[in-house]
Design goal:
This protein has a domain of about 60 residues: Muramoyl-pentapeptide Carboxypeptidase, domain 1, CATH 1.10.101. It is about 55% helix and about 5% strand. The protein is built from 14 helices and 3 strands. Strands 1-2-3 form a 3-stranded antiparallel sheet. The chain is globular and about 65 Å long.
Length: about 270
């Protein structure tokens, strides 16, 4: 449930305290008035959240993250845009459409989704098919050639920990991680020294999640060029796969780019592809 203008009570007071602590001072009077709305919009713009003046789960998570120093800011997003040689509005668009909204749970663990069918594949790679089949027989919810077994939410972290107890590297490689849900098996082409090095980065901050996203895009020149040219269908096809149309990713990208060009003025950059 979102907090909005006109709301009152302890939840509003808590929001006001968090805004003030994050550097957006507002009186803690338990009333969501114009001053609170203005402070909230300013925070949302700086933290790359759709600036609508309502405090939903993403905004509240960002406020908590800002206190712990692991949340993305506009400066981080600009650095990502510079790395990819795209306007800030383009970077914000990708972050809005291709992210899950936040990179960490309320317990400050990175958001993960453990894929048991990938774990089976990675175990086969590390240990051989016979060992993978044996583990699948004993732990079918964790090791399975078929997709499934999802627990959802924070319970996915517990599934990952159980998998790590069976084989650390294969387990890390078999989860999608962080704000942009990049699979762990990409650790090597993305420049990490090991699977554990990847995990440590994903546990540090959303800035690491954004850096991984930028490197993921850079490693595919065609994807990178499509992003620079704002050819949304081509970008979505390479990023989301051939079924991108089922979720209208190209349409969403175009829509959010139109929005962010109004929030963050587009300054064209040189095409380095």
């Amino acid at each position: 449930m979102s907090l909005k203008k006109g709301d009152t009570g302890t939840a509003v007071a808590d929001l006001q305290r968090r805004l003030t602590a994050a550097g957006y001072p507002v009186a803690v009077d338990s009333w969501f008035g114009e001053a609170t709305e203005n402070a909230l919009v300013a925070f949302q713009r700086d933290y790359m959240i759709a600036a609508i003046g309502q405090a939903g789960p993403r905004t509240l998570a960002a406020l908590l993250g800002s206190e712990r120093g692991n949340q993305l800011t506009i400066n981080h997003m600009q650095a990502g845009a510079d790395l990819l040689a795209v306007p800030l509005a383009t970077m914000a668009t990708v972050a809005q459409v291709e992210s899950i909204g936040e990179g960490f749970t309320q317990a400050m663990r990175p958001v993960v989704l453990f894929e048991r069918h990938v774990f089976y594949k990675q175990l086969t790679k590390h240990l051989g098919k016979a060992a993978a089949d044996q583990l699948a027989a004993h732990y079918p919810n964790l090791v399975n050639p078929k997709r499934g077994g999802y627990a959802g939410g924070v319970a996915e972290w517990e599934r990952l920990q159980l998998a790590i107890s069976l084989h650390r590297d294969a387990a890390i490689e078999s989860a999608s991680w962080g704000m942009f849900q990049i699979m762990g098996y990409h650790w090597q082409p993305l420049g990490f020294a090991s699977a554990s090095d990847w995990q440590n980065a994903m546990q540090r901050s959303e800035v690491e999640h954004l850096t991984a996203l930028c490197h993921f895009i850079q490693q595919d020149p065609a994807m990178h060029k499509a992003l620079q040219g704002r050819k949304w269908a081509d970008f979505a096809r390479r990023y989301n796969g051939p079924a991108y149309k089922e979720n209208d990713y190209d349409t969403k990208l175009a829509k959010w780019f139109a929005y962010f060009t109004k929030v963050y003025q587009v300054q064209e950059v040189a095409n380095v592809a």
